[in-house]
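sry for the spam today, last one i promise. struct tokens for design, 204 residues
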């Protein structure tokens, strides 16, 4: 049996219910190990570079996949942005993680992005036959109005390999969770993320 991947779940506290459901499924069915910790106690007056290093090398320490749960207010939360950014950088102790995004039911989103090739399409969306490519920011923002701006940046980046999946698709078959974690882990080193956006310094 292969070892389970250590997963950091980034989310807004108002979506705690879904984080708990995901991690309970992960533990009960041996899908992954929850490696999440709160990052809310970081000194916000520190320089961006130091905040990123602290999160990457202390809070995300030894995790290799970050799952971003997107609810109605996720895009407004600075700590979520910090966690996504820090997941994407190579730290002195830990290298970058793979990242994928889960759209929670309250967003009403049924759209998806399959960044890991034909096998992901077959496993997660077996009945889908009409795949299209998107290369415009306004189209992504229309499809995912609640997604953090940094997520949109990287959906537009062909080398980032970030999948987006609706919550119900994952929970129709829990093997899909394991598959997507494995695929995200396998592709993480090849990811070249867009890190050009400055860190979000306030909630809005």
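last one done:
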């Amino acid at each position: 049996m292969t070892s389970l991947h250590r997963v950091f779940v980034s989310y807004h506290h108002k979506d705690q219910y879904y984080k708990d459901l995901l991690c309970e499924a992960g533990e009960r069915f041996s899908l992954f190990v929850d490696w999440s910790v709160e990052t809310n106690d970081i000194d916000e007056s520190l320089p961006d570079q130091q905040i990123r290093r602290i999160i990457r090398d202390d809070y995300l320490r030894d995790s290799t996949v970050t799952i971003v749960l997107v609810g109605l207010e996720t895009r407004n939360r600075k700590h979520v942005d910090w966690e996504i950014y820090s997941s994407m950088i190579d730290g002195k102790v830990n290298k970058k993680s793979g990242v994928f995004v889960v759209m929670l039911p309250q967003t009403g989103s049924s759209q998806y992005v399959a960044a890991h090739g034909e096998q992901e399409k077959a496993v997660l969306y077996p009945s889908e036959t009409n795949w299209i490519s998107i290369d415009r920011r306004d189209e992504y923002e229309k499809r995912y109005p609640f997604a953090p701006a940094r997520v949109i940046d990287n959906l537009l980046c062909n080398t980032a390999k970030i999948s987006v999946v609706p919550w119900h698709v994952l929970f129709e078959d829990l093997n899909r969770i394991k598959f997507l974690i494995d695929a995200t882990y396998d592709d993480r080193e090849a990811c070249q993320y867009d890190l050009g956006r400055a860190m979000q310094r306030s909630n809005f």
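Residues 16-28 form the longest helix (13 residues). ok im logging off now
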